[in-house]
Amino acid sequence: MTERAALRAVAIRILDSLPGSITLPAGTGKTELVAAVVAEVAADGGNVLVLTHTHAGVEALRRRMDKFSVPKKHVSVRTIDAWCFDLIQHFPLLAGHIVSAAPDWSHSQAYHVAATRAVDSEPVRRMLTVSYDLIVVDEYQDCLIDQHRLIVGFSAMMPTLVLGDPLQGLFNFGKQQPVNWRGDVLNHFPEVAVDVYPWRWHSHNQALGSWLLSIRAPLSRGNSIDLTRSPVQWKKMPNDQRFKVKEQVGTCFQSPQEGSTVALGHFRHDILSPAQYLNGSYSVMEALDSNVTEDFCQLVDTGTAPEIAAGAVQFAVNCATGIAAHLDSTKRRRLASGKPIATRTQDRQSAYAAINRTLSGPTPGFVHAAMEAIVGLPNVKIYCREAWTEVLQALQFAALDDGLSVTRALTQVRNAARARGRRPARRVLSRPLLVKGLEYDHAILLDADQYNAQELYVALSRGSKSVTVVSRSPVLSPSLPG
């Protein structure tokens, strides 16, 4: 039996077992299995709604559907939040919730509750049963309780399959209440057993794939793991902060040139210091709801001219290397006091003129022009490309529409990015939460001592060819989330 035929047989067995849940570790073919199940339904003319949590996950699923030649008319792949918002827009009375034209994701929990209310209504139930033959929810370990209630509502009207891995649950911070796999998930979606094989590493590094499966049990129990005899390359983290960053940067530069590389830090500030020294060779992957860009857009909307002028330069300094040499702290303080800046250096004069224009006219158009001029200065290289592009697009949209605030334009830019997906970069600096579900050739953990068990497992399982860990000791003792 061929590999594709065997996968089809598993998909048929799963479809005969619904409602159900499947637990599969990272890199063991979960996305492939989802595509096989969808392809089986589509081959019979059925329609499938596939839901997940992140826009990266949507992209990965869509690419796999293309690989399996699933006709787009037979499958819809969405994030749960986006699907909820659209449902409320179409059925506001049944949802008991009125939303604006564009989503405000700070209200996502209210969207979940309202969408569940709508799904419980007879008209929406009829619409869903006519529209879809199967519901599939990926990365189910990241479902919050309100999202879980929505999916349980789906399962009462049509076949529903949920897939996930409790060891990759990263949405357990703040006041969020994720599902308990044993207590919440298995009670509604009995487990469907499937074989586990580390396919991600099959052609690249079989020893790494086998080792990653072997550490799942100790990590789940909160035990330590020893990298000494593992297929992972370990580098000692210096205690001195200056040498710590130097070691991280050196490790990033030493990553193989062929293929893709992701370097991972725990928090945003953990990746910004290495990014500055890497001089633009790595691109920082931001959260799509980052407060950094939103704060700057609000400043352009509400700040004074001096605040906006100085803020534009500071935002540029925070996104790129080489700017501080052209616009030092003295000049930034002068702008903040409302005074224009001057230079005798020929290649800086056009940028200075553009910045000075914002002091008398801090419009989105002038701010956009100033920032474009700043990044055009000699030896300037952007490393926070996503944040930079997001802001410039928002400024451009607001400049073209007098009634559109920059903050509102930012929301439009972000929603468009969620819909179309991210453009993959060859070398990326990010965090485990933002790259979960993505695959790279090489992964570097910049300060592995900071991770809890789930973060560590997600980080270690990103690289298909090699994994390098920078930590204080080769024995890692990650905690279990509280």
Biggest beta-sheet profile = 6 strands, parallel
Total number of strands: 15
Which value, in Å, is the CA radius of gyration?
24 Å
Lateral arrangement of strands in the main beta sheet: 7-14-13-8-12-9
The gross shape turns out to be globular
Number of domains: 3
> What is the SS-derived class?
alpha/beta
Distance between the termini: 46 Å
CATH architecture of the largest domain: 3-Layer(aba) Sandwich
Strand portion: 5-15%
The CATH homologous superfamily of the largest domain is termed P-loop containing nucleotide triphosphate hydrolases
Regarding CATH, which class of the largest domain?
A: Alpha Beta
- Stated plainly, the CATH topology of the largest domain is called Rossmann fold
Low-confidence stretches: none
- What percent of residues adopt helix (DSSP H or I)? 40-55%
Question: How many helix segments?
Answer: 22
Task: Describe what you observe in this structure.
This protein is an alpha/beta fold and 482 residues long. It has 3 domains: 3-197, Rossmann fold, CATH 3.40.50; 203-285 and 426-476, P-loop containing nucleotide triphosphate hydrolases (Rossmann fold), CATH 3.40.50; 291-420, no CATH class. Helix content is 49%, strand content 12%. The protein is built from 22 helices and 15 strands. The strands form 4 sheets. The chain has a 6-stranded parallel beta sheet. Strands 1-5-4-2-3 form a 5-stranded parallel beta sheet, sandwiched between helices. The chain is globular and about 75 Å long. The mean pLDDT is 90.
